[in-house]
Amino acid sequence: MTRPARARAGVRRPYSVTVPCAGMPPRARAPDWKDWLERWDRQQEAFNPTREARFDAMMDVLEVRLGRRFRVLDLGCGPGSFSQRILRRFPAARVVAVDYDPVVRQIGQGALGTMGGRLTWVDAKLGAPGWRRALPPGRFEGAVSTTALHWLTARPLFRLYRDLGRLLPRGGVFLDGDHLPWDERDRDLSELGRGVVRLYRRRQHARARDTWAGWREWWTAARREPALRSAFAEHVRRAASHPKHEGDIPLSAHVRALRSAGFRTVDVVWQVFENRVLLGVR
Ligand SMILES: C[S@@+](CC[C@H](N)C(=O)[O-])C[C@H]1O[C@@H](n2cnc3c(N)ncnc32)[C@H](O)[C@@H]1O
Prior knowledge:
This protein has about 280 residues and is α/β, with parallel strands linked by helices. The chain has helices at about 5-10, 35-45, 50-65, 80-90, 100-110, 155-165, 185-205, 215-225, 230-240, 250-260; strands at about 70-75, 95-100, 120, 140-145, 175-180, 265-270, 275-280. α6 links the parallel β4 (about 140-145) and β5 (about 175-180).
């Protein structure tokens, strides 16, 4: 790819090649995975400008409920943004980060490694029958997730909740930070939710960007990264892309499913319109 073409694709620090000595073939330098992770964070912030505030609120709940030494799952971890923040803030914590997309896991592993042996990466499809078998043994005091579970349709999502109900001990916590819409039957509220999304999109368009632009640019650049070639082949084989289904499962259905999975306290603990953090206490 030529330099201007790279700039158009939004690639700031691309795959680079060392200048060879006479007679030596060019040698590929390892990609800058930390930069890939930073760019992931920037494109996610374009969808959710309050992303960091939401992470902080979720970590406050972890600290109040579990203290500063715990082991949690990060469900649909992507390249590990939330795992990284948890492990930075809680030096005695451990995280098991689960994602079924080999592209984001490779980037996360490249950028964060194991963070001193405290971060474990797991390949599993959440909500698929038997997904729990992929987890390492041992106790989990909590499970967290950000901007991920809206990818799941009702059947796998509710299976995931049932499994978490069995996996977490009494007093354990589940925290989901995601778009959790009001029920369509609450007409005033669901219209408000949709109206706010439209307003936000109009503002983005006024800046000549749509909300998905950063996401598309990031994935276009990732597809061009030679070190991700085999992960991409597997990504395509698994169809591990953003799902096409429309309409996220309403908040009320999440609440019901968590209660019937054995979570005794279930409520929203943070929100900006429909961008919420749902807490379940086992
Ligand atoms: C928008 S990203 C969010 C990543 C990260 N949690 C964050 O906040 O930056 C959604 C992630 O969920 C993962 N995901 C979606 N459905 C999944 C499933 N059934 N099993 C495992 N991972 C899943 C996707 O592969 C993707 O990495």
